[in-house]
UniProtKB/TrEMBL annotation:
Pfam families: NiFeSe_Hases. PANTHER family: HYDROGENASE EXPRESSION_FORMATION PROTEIN HUPK, HYDROGENASE-2 LARGE CHAIN. This is Nickel-dependent hydrogenase large subunit. It comes from the Bacteria. InterPro entries: Ni-dep_hyd_lsu, NiFe-Hase_large, NiFe/NiFeSe_hydrgnase_LSU. Gene3D superfamilies: Cytochrome-c3 Hydrogenase, chain B (1.10.645.10).
Length: 383
């Protein structure tokens, strides 16, 4: 088991046909390490607890702290923080594409591009906040717009060459399934190679399920639910109004015309999921104040925040007593997506393989498409 825990996935099958799926998580409740801390202390500790989606985790914590303390919003600084969140989404997707997609194709990862990606990521905060401290109660906005725009251009160029082989603009112009097929045939980049493998294997609809995307959760309803729910159960195996939902990039991209058409043909299968990720990795933010997706609120020392992390909706809830954390809860997108009856489980149940080896390969592709965020193990059992 890794320190961050892992996902155990067991598939029972007969000659490659799935009979049952069992998913169990050993992910620890890291937020319990924050109990007893002051808001300032927890905001300092958070980067040590979360290496993935660190900006989203820090921003959700900051919003929850501000709400619990009754502090006013910071529109200008929050617009810059939103920019950092969108950049983090691009970075997280690009990292997984550069690391995991070549492995699916039996090829080595582009380590040079990965190193360049990390180098750029570290520089963005310094362009927006004094000392690069973006997620503190006393953070000071300090914008270096020329440097920020220069880094954004470098990031766009890196993604264009490492993932799209110079075809990023052409990919962004795609509006229907026919244009997507033409792009795949006419491009040699990593994205086109992976999509082409789906076409060749006829895996376009592989892993489709009937699990719906998580709707927008109104603050008042969520606050009331978390007041009365078994919080440990909700954080580990969340449902909303008695149903399982998925919280993935597809949840955000489902209204895009290309996604609408692909989903009408292939449901929520592999093609739709990988294209949704590619649409997000092309969205390098510009330094403008866009409408925020993050929401927070609270009363009587309780703060609740919702933030769109790279892999889906992230919820933080904290309760303060005598200026220290009395209770802290996090509902991560992973928990929605690896719910024992959730989107990954239902997608795995729908696999139609020819034998055990084919089933393992199909399962690996689907797991990567859903992206559980942490390490996982797949075990096959014959019936």
């Amino acid at each position: 088991m890794t320190p961050a825990g892992e996902i155990h996935i067991e598939l029972t099958h007969r000659a490659g046909q799935v009979g049952s799926v069992k998913i169990a998580s050993t992910r620890p409740e890291a937020a319990q390490a924050l109990v007893g801390k002051t808001p300032e202390q927890l905001l300092s500790m958070l980067p040590l607890l979360f290496s993935l989606c660190g900006n989203a985790q820090a921003y959700a914590a900051l919003l929850a702290c501000r709400a619990a303390l009754g502090l006013a919003a910071e529109p200008a600084a929050d617009a810059a923080r939103e920019c950092l969140l969108r950049l983090e989404t691009v970075r997280e997707h690009a990292w997984r594409i550069l690391l995991d997609w070549p492995a699916l194709l039996g090829k080595p990862a582009d380590k040079a591009a990965m190193v360049a990606l990390l180098k750029l990521d570290r520089q963005f905060k310094a362009c927006l906040f004094a000392d690069g401290e973006a997620f503190r109660l006393d953070s000071r906005l300090q914008i270096d717009e020329p440097s920020f725009n220069g880094l954004s251009a470098e990031l766009t160029d890196l993604i264009d060459h490492a993932i799209f082989a110079g075809g990023l603009d052409r990919f962004l112009a795609i509006t229907d399934a026919a244009q997507l097929r033409d792009f795949v045939v006419g491009n040699t980049g990593l994205a086109a190679q992976l999509l082409n493998a789906l076409y060749q294997r006829d895996w376009l609809a592989l892993g489709a399920s009937s699990v719906s995307c998580l709707p927008e959760l109104e603050y008042a309803e969520l606050h009331q639910h978390m007041q009365h729910a078994d919080l440990s159960a909700f954080c580990r195996t969340p449902q909303w109004q008695g149903r399982c939902y998925e919280a993935t990039p597809l949840s955000r991209q489902q209204a895009q015309p290309l996604i609408v058409e692909l989903q009408s043909r292939y449901g929520t299968g592999l093609l739709v999921r990988f294209v949704a990720v590619l649409l997000e990795v092309t969205a390098v933010p510009k330094l403008v104040a866009l409408p925020t997706r993050a929401t927070g609120g609270g009363a009587d020392g309780v703060g609740l925040a919702q933030v769109q992390a790279a892999r889906g909706l992230l919820i933080h809830r904290l309760a303060l007593r005598q200026s220290r954390v009395y209770d802290y809860r996090i509902v991560a997108p992973t928990e929605w997506n690896v719910h024992p009856d959730g989107v990954l489980a239902q997608g795995l149940k729908a696999l139609q393989a020819t034998d055990a080896d084919d089933l393992r390969q199909q399962a690996e592709w689907l797991i990567q498409a859903v992206d559980p965020c942490v390490a996982y193990r797949v075990t096959l059992h014959k019936q």
